[in-house]
Amino acid sequence: MRLINTARILALIELTRRLHQAYEHAYDKQAAEWLLPQNPGQVFPPIDLDKLKGLIQDRLNYGDCAEFVASLINKAAELSKGKNPAVSTDIMGLFEKIRSQPNGGIVFAPPHPRVAGGGGTTEGYYRDGSVNIRITPLGYFADNPRGAYSIPFRYGLNGLHEVIHGAGQNEKYLESDLLEAAKKLEPNAGYYDWNQALKKHCLAPNQR
What we know:
By secondary structure, the protein is mainly alpha-helical. The chain is 52% helix and 8% strand.
């Protein structure tokens, strides 16, 4: 009986190993399809971290964007009641801090299959150097070249959005944390998504 149980355990371990390999293979294939699209009519403009940083700075330079973002982060920290103070309200400084995380960093990759996120995702902790941001590559179809116009604005806003998530010292600020902060700052705005507030303050009306 003991031999039978041992055999079952070994079989279960082997099955788990094979399922994990299959999952990794499927995800790697998905990532390759995102970064190297198979549709020849789809165009993905070149992007790198320095360019992304510049596009985020462009958003901060618009109107009162920088001031609003600082207020939003400070309000999220305040609402945490000491549990999750802000690392900083300096977005460019945060960008470099996250970029240099030894076990994290910033990459261009499709959304992680286990984490919800359209424009990107932020995960990890500063305490172990694992804060990481994934920015979804953006493209357009060649038969609609006007689609290229919005990409720099979208990259800038998406990057800013994710860096704000990464402003929490002990853990990322959640969507719910930032929505509550935005509502406290502008109680009559009727926000149901804090990204509405970010667009309002960081994008011109014709770019939203």
